[in-house]
Amino acid sequence: MAARTKARKRALDLLFEAEARGVNVGDLLHERLATPVTQAPLNPYTATLVEGVVGHWREINELLDTYSQGWPVARMPAVDRAILRLGAYEVLYSTEVPEKVAIAEAVGLASELSTDESPKFVNGLLARLVQVKPTLA
């Protein structure tokens, strides 16, 4: 597994864990950076992703709500919410990864970790965000 793919998975784990525990994801990230719970410290790209999602939290959630067509963020499975937040950050705000790669990585996470319908949903919603990206300011 490529380093960035692992970093995305770890970022997803942090987003999911924070929601499940009802804690602030930024605080959880800083806790894990200070005191790792695994032998390997967090990849710097994991921190970049989580910090990026946190920094654009409101905008990401509003865009997901707007373009998910009848599936408010609150109704989505928790793992899908986390995957979509990561994917949305990468396609809308990151300049480090091509949009198609970010979408493919998000779809891969959904295929591995969520329902049978999730990969198609993640792909469609992130592709829609890429389409409207030029109109966002």
Automatic annotation (TrEMBL):
A family per Pfam: NusB
UniProt keywords, alphabetically: RNA-binding, Transcription, Transcription antitermination, Transcription regulation
Domain NusB/RsmB/TIM44 intervals: 6-130
SUPFAM superfamilies (UniProt xref): NusB-like
The keyword Repressor appears for this protein: no
HAMAP family: NusB (MF_00073)
Stated role: Involved in transcription antitermination. Required for transcription of ribosomal RNA (rRNA) genes. Binds specifically to the boxA antiterminator sequence of the ribosomal RNA (rrn) operons.
Family, similarity comment: Belongs to the NusB family.
The protein, known as: Transcription antitermination protein NusB
Phylogenetic classification of the source organism: Bacteria, Bacillati, Actinomycetota, Actinomycetes, Micrococcales
Gene name of the record: nusB
